[in-house]
Amino acid sequence: MAIEHFEVELVDASMIAPNVKHLVFKKADGSKFEFVPGQFITFLFDHEDGKLRRRSYSVATIPNQTDLIEIAISYVDGGIASENFFNMQKGQCFNVMGPAGRLILKENEVIDKLILVGTGTGIAPYRAMLPSLQTALTKNVKTVYILLGVQYQQDAIYAKDFRQYVKNTPNLHFIACLSREENALLEDEVKGYVQRYFEKLDLNPAHDVVYLCGNPNMIDDAFALLSEYGFDAKHVRREKYISSN
């Protein structure tokens, strides 16, 4: 799929966690937005120093439900993208390029356990993958675990969507790993860092595949743990999320 340059218009915006905003765009020319679940788009911002700034966000849109472009953004104090997105009004337009990225599902790849790990807004690409995961589980993947790492229950963005799909999809599992939560946990919640959940999954480096998206520290730590388990780079696919400043 070729990388395009196009303009998007803000259609809707809502807070989905104390520090996270869900933004919905449409292509300004009215054409359909096409992407592969797992890809990202890049917003182009003019900075006061005269230089162009680029900020990339995974597409969170669930295909077949809408032709719109949905993303999630965390607020960063003084960040170029944060100040633009958190103060913008419906109807405002931005220049965008994309889609791009290789954190996508490989068609017909035979996998025993597919582990999709995301911290914070790094969970967004897996929301877009939900219909594809349903299909894969009927064909070439035995089991899927979606692991979300956040600090508190209130930070678990898109948990409602994952839980809804889990109800209707055999062998699809969602686990929220909460590093600082002190309240009572739900059935699909555990205390601790997301990468520490690997020890509960009886992973097999020869037949399992792990996707990592989000905080660079988590990704580096998770990759080191997986390497100890015997995973090679072929079976661990990574995309680091850098705070938009």
Characterize the structure shown.
The chain is an alpha/beta fold. It is 18% helix and 37% strand. It has two domains: 4-100, Elongation Factor Tu (Ef-tu), domain 3 (Beta Barrel), CATH 2.40.30.10; 111-240, Rossmann fold, CATH 3.40.50.80. It is built from four helices and twelve strands, in the order E-E-E-E-E-H-E-E-H-E-H-E-E-E-H-E. The strands form two sheets. A six-stranded antiparallel β-sheet has the order 4-3-6-1-2-5, covered by helices on one side. Strands 10-9-8-7-11-12 form a six-stranded parallel β-sheet, with helices on both faces. The protein is globular.
Brief sketch in words of this structure:
The protein has 245 residues and is an alpha/beta fold.
Furnish the topology, listing elements before pairings.
Blueprint: E1 4-17, E2 20-27, E3 40-46, E4 52-58, E5 69-74, H1 80-87, E6 93-100, E7 111-119, H2 124-136, E8 141-150, H3 159-168, E9 172-178, E10 189-191, E11 209-214, H4 216-229, E12 236-240
Parallel strand pairs: 7-8, 7-11, 8-9, 9-10, 11-12
Antiparallel strand pairs: 1-2, 1-6, 2-5, 3-4, 3-6
